[in-house]
Amino acid sequence: MTVQPAPSSLDRTGSRFGALRTRVAATVAALAVAGGVAVTVATSSPATAGPGSVVVSESFSSGSLPAGWNAVDGTWKVENGRLYGTSASSSDNNKITFGRHLNDFRLEATMRFETVSSATRWASLGIDVPADGATPWWIATMRSGTTAANGLEFAQRTTGNAWVVTNTASAPYAAGTGRDVRVAVEVHGNQARWIFDGREAMRTNSLQRSTDGVQGLFVNGATVSYDDVTVTELAANGYLRPEGSPFTVIAHRGASAAAPENTLVAQEIARRGGADWIENDVQPSKDGIPFILHDTTVDRTTDGTGTIRELTAAQIKALDAGSWFGPQYVGERVPTLAEQLADLRTRGGNLLLEIKGKHTRDEVATIVQVIRDEQMMGRVFVQSFEVDALRYTYEIAPELPLGLLRSTLDADPAALARELHLTAYNPDGNALLAKPEVVAPLHAAGVAVMAWTMDSAGLWQRLERIGADAIITNRAAELVGWNSAFLQRASTDPTVQITSPADGARLDRAQSPVIAVAATNADTVTVTLDGKKSAAGRKLDLTRLTAGRHTISTQATGPEGTATATSTFTVTVSQAGLGYLILTSGADPAAVTAMTTKLVRAQYAELATYADRQAGKLVPAEVAAVIAGDARTLALK
């Protein structure tokens, strides 16, 4: 296990890393950690630390708890190359902590329920846990009955020892007992994705992160074993969509199809509908207060008239911003940026904030100061059509992610993204569909693509195919539903498995197994035996193979990629098997009698010499060599 100290800085425009394939051509591979049992604590930030670095890698091969792992409560021990945690009661949330504080990381492990008191008992990956195990802490939970509606959860244990469950989902199958399940959670600040056996199951944007929490493992009312625990640091740009994951859902002006746009009620409806981000527009009042409003005038979305920059904050706050949409919204007000951010901070959510129209540097500085004052710097993403506004934002607050809005595509979006320090390039969705080839170079540069404003399933499907990462939409709740269906679709990735001979099988000469391969979503399947071309359905003649290990390999190739599998079997040597080999050798009857007599008398050395002497004469040469080899093996036993 290797623990490295935090690096001094992060590359905020890097890509998201994980076990799933990403579309980013320049993906940084996780660094391999050799040894698995040694513990290294560096005293200064190494040059290799940062996105892609493996912070923890533990296979539990040492036979004892790794150094630096703190068994807070419950029973924790290492046996047979696995970590076992036991919680005696469903009231005991037993835990072990490790690692170091990270804002952006992937924690993954192989988990197996050994015994459970009931199917509701659970085990968890600790996302943000004080090293001493004190509350509050956040976990990503898996029950043994994972197909229940709350089989998977994101949850917080509060300082009052109460549960706050922010998100629940069901897994595609039950973990049960005795079954290894590979699970992972990817965390970017207050956002996280729960990954069950390689597929995203749910996400949250409701984490409340600490400044010093580390990682952990939890067990409740069960004995659970863990293996191959790794923590990999991720780049700060968590906006790139991994292969197989759904879109990031961005609610355009809040739930603007269901409520008056750019109001707190529209924000609340979008939040309840499952939107990952709220998109709103900001402009200053006459007295310099940033307000949430799209148009340059208040005429369309309030009961007043006039240009927002010519109205004071008091005048704007007196306006009714809801009655135009429906009678149930009478009295809704135009929120200030501070009010909107306070609502998001306390009730949950993230803001994609468009700086609307021309802004001076001082006006941009005021917007940034409001974000700082509301303690939302880690949960706001700034976008604009105005290049100067983005330049000012970067000068004042380089830590804020930036997105460039475009109605038409630039000649070289990736080059412009580098120039402006963009985290995302945000074009009109129809313009993007007309020129989808811009996506790949943007992803290669670590830049996400957020398309606006797309409101139909047909368009979402086309954008998914070309690799867009996020959708800005007026129909956020519908896109959330579309995402759920996307996650439940059957995988089109090829799969392949060698079903016969089974991996690890021990076979004697008398057996005649057939190579059997099961493949899905594959156009071609190739098979090799010990590196030489073979075929599925071929009967293996074990009388012609040398004793010992042999390997069958197969590769299935389909439209979505390639899958491989191997199976290793052993041809064993026995007296009975050698007898079968002699009787089926095709040798002269006199030679068969002579060899059988020596075999029955256990005269193995003499049998080997006889087979060598008669090779190509009374005994076919190829089979004579196998008989002689098996006889010599028996002579040594």
Provide a descriptive summary of the structure in words.
The protein is α/β, with parallel strands linked by helices and 637 residues long. Helices cover 22% and strands 30% of the residues. It contains 14 helices and 33 strands. Strands 3, 5, 6, 8, 13, 14, 15 and 17 form an 8-stranded antiparallel sheet that branches. An 8-stranded parallel barrel has the order 18-19-21-22-23-24-25-26, surrounded by 6 helices. Helix 12 packs antiparallel against helix 13 (604-614). The longest helix is centred in the C-terminal third of the chain and has 16 residues, at 621-636. The chain is elongated. The chain starts with a strand and ends with a helix.
Briefly say what this structure is:
This protein is of the alpha/beta class and 637 residues long. Helices cover 22% and strands 30% of the residues. Strands 3, 5, 6, 8, 13, 14, 15 and 17 form an 8-stranded antiparallel sheet that branches. Strands 18-19-21-22-23-24-25-26 form an 8-stranded parallel beta barrel, surrounded by 6 helices.
